[in-house]
Each structure stands twice: as structure tokens, then as C-alpha cells.
Design brief:
Elements (H helix, E strand, L loop, with lengths): L1 E6 L2 E4 L4 E9 L6 E7 L6 E7 L4 E3 L7 E6 L4 E6 L8 E8 L7 E3 L3 E6 L1
Parallel strand pairs: 2-11
Antiparallel strand pairs: 1-3, 3-8, 4-5, 4-9, 5-6, 7-8, 9-10, 9-11
Length: 118
Amino acid sequence: QVQLVESGGGLVQAGGSLRLSCAASGSIFSINVMGWYRQAPGKQRELVAVMASGGNTNYADSVKGRFIISRDNAKNTVYLQMNSLKPEDTAVYYCKVVIWNLRPPDYWGQGTQVTVSS
């Protein structure tokens, strides 16, 4: 099994920055995809940013140019640098990893709250 530990959420004013971290541990040989999703109250969970093991990235249009995803494969850790935060970024942020040689292949973190005040 795989365990994910997230950190870095909190309260920040609009225009500020936060950095989220998610460290994976357990039965891991190679993590294929690492990424971040978020869920605001009353809304569905949505993709924020993902990064494949080869470095390809995909961002939600709403965060392009403001958020940066990165990963340290040696530490099995993914980061999300969030800049120019807006009140609409307020949500619970979840880390997700995909490991194709495991069943199940998808694992989620417990979530970390990000609140952006106006």
C-alpha cells in the first residue's frame, strides 16, 4: 500500500503565496503520475495540476501562469507552488499519485485546506 502525507495549507491573503508538499511512502518502485486536485464547498473535485514521471505537465486553465507543479523523484514528493492566490482558489487540496504496477493504481492524500481571504 501507499501512504501520502500532505502539508503546507493554510490561510493567506489574496495575492499571497503558499507551497504544498505531498510525500509518498510504502510499496513504491516508481510513481507514474503525481498531482494535485481541489474541491471547493458545493463543487466537484477538479484537477489543478499533474506531472508525469517524464516531466510532462498539465494545468487547469484557472491556475496557468500562477501555480507551478514540481516533483522530487528521489524523495517521492510532489510540490505545488501557488502564487498570486485568489479567493476562488479556496478549497481542500488533495494530492494524488498513480502507480500503474499496483492494484489499485490510484492513491489520494487526506487533503489540506487552503483559504484565501479577500
